[in-house]
Structures are given as structure tokens and as C-alpha cells.
Description:
Blueprint: H1 3-21, H2 30-51, H3 56-85, H4 95-99, H5 102-106, H6 113-124, E1 127-131, E2 134-137, H7 142-147, E3 154-155, H8 174-185, H9 190-214, E4 219-220, H10 221-238, H11 244-247, H12 252-261, H13 270-275, H14 281-299, H15 320-324, H16 328-336, H17 348-351, H18 355-367, E5 377-378, E6 384-386, E7 389-391, E8 396-398, H19 401-404, E9 442-443, E10 454-455, H20 464-481, E11 482-486, H21 493-497, E12 500-502, E13 504-506, E14 511-516
Parallel strand pairs: 2-8
Antiparallel strand pairs: 1-2, 3-5, 4-14, 5-8, 6-7, 9-10, 11-14, 12-13
Helix pairs in contact: 1-3, 2-3, 9-10, 9-20, 12-14, 16-18
Amino acid sequence: MSSIRSLCLVLVGVATHLCCFHRFEHHMFGGRYFQLIFLFVTAHVTNSTLNYSKSLQTALGNVLVLIALFLNGLYLSLIFDHFFLSPLRRFPGPIGAKISNLWLSLHLRNCDAHKRLFALHETYGDFLRIGSSDLSIVHPKAVQVIYAPQSKCTKADWYDLTLPMVSIQTTRNRALHGQRRRIWSRAFAEKSLRGYEQSISVFQDQLMRKVQAAAQQPINVTELLSLYSFDVMGDLAFGESFDMLRNGEMHWAVKLVDEAMAPMGLMLPTRLLTTISFATRGWWRFIVYCCQKLDEVIDDKKITSTILTTLLEPYNGFTPSARQNPDYIPRLRKELAPHISVNNDIQHHPLQYLEHLNAVISETLRLHPPVSTALQRATPPEGLHIEDTYIPGYTTVWCPQYVIGRSEAVYDNARGFIPECWSTSPSLVKEKGAYAPFSAVTILPLTFPNYVLTTVGSYSCIGKPLVLLNIRSTTAKLIMKFDLGFAEGEDGTGFEKNTKTQFTAAPGDMYLKFTER
């Protein structure tokens, strides 16, 4: 092959990058690109063997050289752009991350993105370039700028993962999101929540009986509360429980959730997740199951208290940090005692105004956020400013709550468990707008008494009222009915040490002993 022809192929690769991949979103077309390459190889080999009498081996070798030259030009242009021309070139970060988003994925074999990002921010500071066009930001003011209602940031391309299926959670269209949110909001009004509370209480009773039956034997509370939470979700979403508390094992459909979320822990680029079919096989099998169950509900006209399964986290109803800090449990019991009815029941309504209970929950969510790393947003074309730092347009940004929750720039004694920062000592929170456990900016009306956690934002978790109802009431009932203690050989460190980030957090095991009071 002549040098001129080779150079032309390299230049075609450069031009392809500059004209196509440099300007437009192309993450949904990975499969198409492989198909085009396959068609080109097939056509070239067929033409060479039939019309030029070349051997199959020679024809295949020639076409692979052509493709290699083209890809060399494309990737040389891409790497040069990322290093020297990218508007993000001045932001610090690992060299490999500047070349490709795959750098981070290759360092997440243990699905510990929250820990990896924490270490990287310790090294590089508040603004971390973590991909070719990605920034991880833990500046105290960043959450307000990126996630607040007035923000011009939109959902990033990661949310296209489920296309062609579009939900209120994944749609990137603001108008469509607003329309669907208005419809869904009726399902979380106060009247609806009272109905959900009655349904949840059935499973809380099952949970109490399960704990009671253990009779001081070590219980893996991570597993037990996962069974409980998914039973609740099954009942509220489909009108029937998975019966996992009764059977003592995971339902096959719930196992699909674990299978579906595992690839998320690698934080692979969207183009790979959508191209590699086996990476999302479990996810789509679970979607098919959900659609079938919803069809059954609609056909049977059992549309009562149904909600989406994504509205509750796998460890609802438990505050692990409170167990690791037992001094707070007597204070919780003292606060809860006046709200126990004559039949020893606890209603949720008064719990939402209990200062110490809500402070303990808020502090737990600070240290153990349900979504600990990447709620990805795309900056507007004109870019944005975080104080004196300019973030260019079309940049994917996120604010990892796990890292922010441990930032001394946001909290005093950031790595300690101090519920008082949400109640009697609000000055310990230096930047209140940085706290966002429910996908958006959280407003903290720190007036006492009657501390209430509220969340605002275009994409804030619409199921937050139900999540908090479940956490408050389940925590209250467990604490009032049982004394809690670590099982022999348990110190609670494994809960966080073995936590995995799979978009949502998957906590490590923790074994406790429960003694009925």
C-alpha cells in the first residue's frame, strides 16, 4: 500500500473524529459502528476474492490494515484533542482518565467507586477530571449550582441506558419529566401515604416476628432488611409480596436486580453498556418481569397502592451508624416513648416532627448516602461557574455525596457521627446546600422544635416521603421493641468496608443480636 494512500486513510480517521465524534452524542450507536465495520470487511473481502482473485487470507489482511490506519487516525486525533485542545485540559486528574472514561472503570474491580473517588479528591482537590469530558466536583457550592431547581444542567447521556424504554427517572426531556412527575405526585400525597403505611405495617410485623424468633442468635441485618424492603416494594408496586421474609430467601426476580446492578458498579461508559448485551441482560429480564406483573395488576383491576420499585433503597428502615453509637439509642427511646399507642403501635405522623430521630436519620444518610457517587448531569452549552471556577459547556459533571459527606469544607468533624449538626448544633454544617441524599438540593429548616427534612429540585426523588415514612417507622419499632448488640466477632466495620457502589449502595454484611425488651 502506498504511503499516500495510508496517509489519506489516517486523515479520514482524523476528519471522522473532528466532524462526527467531536460534535455529537454517539453513545447509542456503538452497535451500529461494529455493524458498519463488519459490512465493510465483508464487502472488501468479497470484492477482493471474486474480482481480483486474491486469497481469503490476503484479502482479510489487507482490509484489517485499512481499518487499523483509519482507527489510528481517529484515536490519535481523539487523544491529541483530550490532552491539548479539550476545554477540560486545565483540570487536574490522572493521565489515563484524560484519555478515556475507561480509566476509572479499569480501577473499579471491587465496585468501590465511592472509595476511589474519595482517594482521588484527596490527591487532586475539589475539581477532578475523571474522564475525557467528565468532572467529579466536591466544591461546597457545586451541589446548588448543578442540582438546584434553577440549574440549567440536564441529565447526562448515562440516562439513555434504558432506551427505548423511558421512565420518569430516565427521561432527559424536561417537559416530559414535568408531565409525568405531576401525575406521579398524586401517588405521594398525604392521603396516599396513610394507605401505604397500613400496607407497610404488615411487613413490619413480619420483620418483628422474624427477629423475635432468632432469640439472641446472630442475624445478618443487611440481608434481613433487604428481604423486608423488597417484600414492601413488591406489595406496593405489584399488589403482592415476594414473600421473602416468610420463605427466608431471595425471590428469583430480586436476584435479577442484583445481576442487573452489578455492571453499574464498574461505571462503564454508556456506549459500552448499551453495546455489550450481556452486561444488561439481567436488567432487561427484570423489566420484562415487572411489565408482566403490572399487566396482571391492570387486568385484575387491582390498582390500589402501587408504586415503582425504585422508590425505596435496599436498606430502608435501619440506621447502622446509630448502632455503632449506642449512646443515641436511649435518647431515641425517650423521644419515641410518648408516641406509643395503648396497643403498643407507633404511627408515622408524629415521627416526622421528632428532632432527634430525624437528625439520626439525616446523619446516617450523610455518611451512607443511597447514591454515593454519580448522579450525572450535562452542563449547558454556555457552561457554568462554581464561584471562580468556570466549567465548560457539554461537560458531564457529578457531585459524589459519599465524598462531600466526609468533606471538612462542608462539615465539622466530617468523619464522625454527630446527629446534633442537624438539630441543636447547626453551625457544624458549614454549607447546608451541599447535603443532597435524595438526588437534589435539600433545604434544612434548622428551627427547633419541628425539624423537617425537605427536598427540592427538578429531579429530586419523588418517592422521598414514602422512603422516610418507612425508615422512621421501622427504625422506631425496632428500637422500642429490642435491645441491639453486635454479634460475637462483629464490630460494624465490615458494613462500610464491604459496601459496593452499583449506582445505589449495596452495603456489606453486619451481624447483630436482638434481645426483646
